[in-house]
From TrEMBL:
Name of the protein this chain belongs to: Drug resistance transporter, EmrB/QacA subfamily
Membrane topology: Multi-pass membrane protein
Tree of life domain: Bacteria
Start and end residues of each Major facilitator superfamily (MFS) profile domain: 15-503
Gene Ontology cellular-component terms listed: plasma membrane
Keyword Transmembrane helix attributed: yes
TM region positions: 12-36, 56-75, 84-103, 109-130, 142-161, 167-191, 203-223, 235-251, 271-296, 334-355, 361-383, 404-425, 476-496
Key words of the record: Cell membrane, Membrane, Transmembrane, Transmembrane helix, Transport
Localization of this protein: Cell membrane
Species lineage: Bacteria, Bacillati, Actinomycetota, Actinomycetes, Micromonosporales
GO molecular function, a single term: transmembrane transporter activity
Principal localisation: membrane
Classification via CDD domains: MFS_MMR_MDR_like
Gene3D superfamilies: MFS general substrate transporter like domains (1.20.1250.20), Multidrug resistance protein D (1.20.1720.10)
Amino acid sequence: MEPHENTGHPRRWAILGVLVISLLVVVLDNTILNVALRTLADPVHGLGASQGELEWAINSYTLVFAGLLFTFGVLGDRLGRKRFLMVGLALFGLASLLSAYAQDPGQLIATRALMGVGGAAIMPVTLSIISNVFDPRERAKAIGVWAGAVGLAVAIGPVLGGALLEHYWWGSVFLINVPVVALGVVLVAALVPESRDPRPGRVDLLGVLLSVVGLVALTYGIIDGGEHGFDRARVWLAVVGGLAVLGWFVAHELRSDHPSLDVRLFRVPRFAAPVALVGLVFFAAMGVMFFGAFYLQLVRGYSPLESGLLFLPFAAAQLIFAPRSAAMVRRYGGRAVAGVGLLLTAAALGAFVLIDADTPIWIFSALGFVQGAGMANIMPPATESIMSALPREKAGVGSAVSNTVRQVAGALGVAVLGSVLSAVYRNDVASAVSALPAPVRDAAQESISGAYAVAGRLGAGAPRLIDAANDSFVSAMHWAAGISALVALLGMGIVLRWMPGRPVLEPEAQPATEPELAGTA
């Protein structure tokens, strides 16, 4: 390739815009769901969902999504990425329609799982299409815009969700996906070129099955243990069984001549280090966002719309810093940029330990801004390192690995930190509810939402119960925040030891001196 020849598609920036719309519909729904959690827990205006059911409403999507990403990434490369994108959008829209009219928590969990199938078809092909339509020298910038779109969805989601919940019933937060999907399908059909791997392999059906079974069993055990206690054999059977099946998955992938995930890639530091980093960051961050919605709406008494607005600084930081991260990496190197981003993220998460029921609310939003700025400088360099470790025709595999780790880690973060939250809350509030009749005592001890529902029927004793529930929840939130900060800090060793520094990305900054590297990065 000539040093200054651009091998990108002529309409690559318009195509990126279409891919951003497709990405928005996937990310938007999860951020909207965060502000709807309290409403869904309400037995009158929602579905009366327990905290465990709320976690499953989130995790049924993420588990199906993650379990199918392996095979959908490969199938998209094999059968056509544009085709998978359109099918995924249509299925996501249908599942959103069904979710809006779910009659109970079980139906919502099932329809959310169907949305996960659609999301799994959408997400990996967006990144793999970017890798195919952009010249390697522009790819880091395009991925920065792609990551910034996640921030845009985070910004739009809570505010839009809150506005809808102020005026309409909870199902409107799912119905909003339908027009976005329709627009996405039309634009994909008109603008996105078809592409596929010229040398596809067979689909690893056993590997896909093992990954789904292992992840579902592991996360079920964690959620069930958090909700009902870890002193039961069924919980440990699920956890240990899930880990064993995932171990079998790894062993099978090592032996297979057509693996859904080539686990040997994890021996390559440029690939493995950013994958691990993405996992740790999303494990920590998603758990904090889960309890943040309850803190704002119950402990502090803000409406869903107000809560969404208070999450805006996190999203604003993503929008500001993510598109600029490629330039920062070229100047300072991926190791330095990701390291600073990780320190900012861990500091913000750790500072939530100091948040209580009377903390000025601007501090909550300021910490969100710091966390957003940190994550905006972790994700783009990590994603670019993952994608550049593979050739263009295998882009779907790299995208699937990156997104799978992110989704699984986020699901486990909600499950593990949600379990910590539930266990500490139950223990702390026990003395305050011990005198209540058994049925209402159990409801008040299960979650802060349950305590508020019980308080609404208590009369004179309500303020005392609400104060106890708030104190117990804040204490539980401190434990979850402290653990999340420690998990994020674990990534610092990975960054310092294995993340690429400036020399890896210099071909993009100086393509004329090293054209052969610029063409294969």
